[in-house]
Amino acid sequence: MKNGIKHIFFDLDHTLWDFDKNSGLTFKKIFKQNKIDVELSEFLEVYEPINLKYWKLYREERVTKPNLRYGRLKEAFDAIGVNVSDEKINLLSVAYIEYLTTFNHLYDGTIEILEYLQYKYHLHIITNGFEEAQERKMRNSNIRTYFKTVTNSEMVGVKKPNPKIFNFALQQANASSGESIMIGDSIEADIEGAVSVGMRAILFNHRNSQTNKVEVIQHLNELKNHL
């Protein structure tokens, strides 16, 4: 163990579980099933930033779960000029959640790094994703057994970066902030949230975003240099 770290907390989506890839495959399937005639690449190009925007609103308690599920689809279809009825959008939103966890691509190096870390540290998850979906993602991609605890925002009633979810996760793991580290892809939700309760944090910067004064990795195997 380096620097007194005993507990590693991971984000799930966009950090271990390749959300964008799995999401794209899900849309391909449900569009075909529902006879939605759109160019998938054109749709995803507008949908992905809209989805991130809605998740930020969700973290900030400015939209509800149903608002997120409907709004991100409605806004994306409007952006590419495709008219889809509200009834169809609601059907698509349900189908999306149903099929999303049937695709389980992980980021390159996920299993290797979890295998490497599990014998040296206690591993945990902190996620803002929907509880029912997150459990299926982890089980279907065969990574659930690596984690001693899973803290979900729906369990706590608040979302990252709220300090309450980090403190809840630490308590559940029987860990102190000084012996814990957070690894995630969001500077706001993961890094700033963890630092606010005294945890160390590493940004998984797979998008090559501009960063400042943050420990950064661009491939999960780089964690071997830090831990």
Provide the CATH top-level class of the largest domain: Alpha Beta
Residue stretches low in confidence (pLDDT < 50, at least 5 long) are none
Residue-averaged pLDDT, rounded?
Answer: 94
Superfamily (CATH H level) name of the largest domain: HAD superfamily/HAD-like
Order of helices and strands: EHHHHHEHEHHEHEE
| Shape summary | globular
What helical percentage do the residues reach? 40-55%
The fraction of residues in strands falls at: 5-15%
**SS-based structural class?**
alpha/beta
CATH topology of the largest domain: Rossmann fold
Question: What's the total count of β strands?
Answer: 6
C-alpha-based Rg, rounded: 18 Å
CATH architecture of the largest domain: 3-Layer(aba) Sandwich
What's the total helix number?
A: 9
Total number of domains: 2
The span between the termini is 7 Å
Strand order of the largest sheet: 3-2-1-4-5-6
Description:
It is a single chain. The model has no long low-confidence stretch (mean pLDDT 94). It is built from nine helices and six strands. By secondary structure, the chain is α/β, with parallel strands linked by helices. It has helices at 19-33, 40-59, 65-79, 86-100, 110-118, 131-140, 153-156, 163-173, 187-196; strands at residues 7-10, 122-127, 149-152, 180-184, 200-204, 215-217. It has a six-stranded parallel β-sheet, sandwiched between helices. It comes from Winogradskyella alexanderae. This is YjjG family noncanonical pyrimidine nucleotidase.
